[in-house]
Amino acid sequence: MKCEMITIVGSYNVGLFLKGQRLPGVGETITADRFVEGPGGKGSNQAVAAAMFGAKVKFVGRVGVDSYGKDALELYRRVGISTELITIDKSIHSGISVILIDADGRNMISVALGANLRLSKEDIDRAAGEIERSMLVGFQLENNLETVLYGIRRSHELGAMTFLDPAPAVKIPDDIYHSIDIIKPNETEASVLSGIKVTGIAEAEAAGAWFLKQGAGTAIITMGELGAVLVSRHAVKHYPAPKVQAIDSTGAGDIFSGALMSALAGGRTIEDAIPFANTAAALSTTRLGVIESIPSRDEVTNLLEVAR
Description:
Elements: E1 5-9, E2 13-19, E3 34-40, H1 42-52, E4 56-64, H2 67-79, E5 86-89, E6 95-101, E7 107-112, H3 121-126, H4 128-133, E8 136-139, H5 145-157, E9 161-164, E10 182-183, H6 187-194, H7 201-214, E11 218-222, E12 228-231, E13 236-239, H8 252-265, H9 270-284, H10 297-307
Parallel strand pairs: 1-4, 1-8, 2-6, 4-5, 8-9, 9-10, 10-11
Antiparallel strand pairs: 2-3, 6-7, 11-12, 12-13
Helix pairs in contact: 1-8, 6-7, 8-9, 9-10
């Protein structure tokens, strides 16, 4: 299978998970029952997923000179992601998330983005040659917003297809939409950006139409177990998600994005790429974790065949 190159501009955060019976109150110290450490960050998750589904991936980001940054680089080398465009920032730590979880699954999260916020326009310019050679360039909103907007515009000017997963959701300038070929918010993010409260398929279609009116090429609204809604110049279509026994939806949106970008880079049309991404995301919810929950390409293909 031919696979064009993808460049993903984004964040890496290590996740430090502490699970206990309850969450602490202000000023209170409690004992956790379990500790787990794992790689994360929206851009990193999407890059790893895309690579594991067979795409050629280059990652543009920043990590600190610490054990977490070393772990990130080792992960990328292990899954075949090029690290030549990653800057090791000696002045600050790698991104860190601390997640406290109680017995009912409720959580409290604190994030120190660290090196992610130092990603700069100069980092984008250094990557311009690879961006120009890329079929697709992916972005999220976990880095400095000005840098992300600059990267989207620069990639569009260089002729690459641009993909934005607008998470965490913040308002973005109206004029940026003309430089976005594909925007992929979930229902909450679509509501924040469009002002249309997305609670079902009809509202997702309306939000998708709003994105196109702003200038985006294609909108894909993901809706968890309801699947995804495509709104393009040529089609408006709902893609149901496969029925699975979900136990952990953490990272499913990132896995959808990584699978979608990989499928597009492999030559699938957007109409064929969405069912692949839907299925990959659904399968990931049947397992704990994020990177650990990414299914193989064969697993996704087999479930797609069963569903037909």
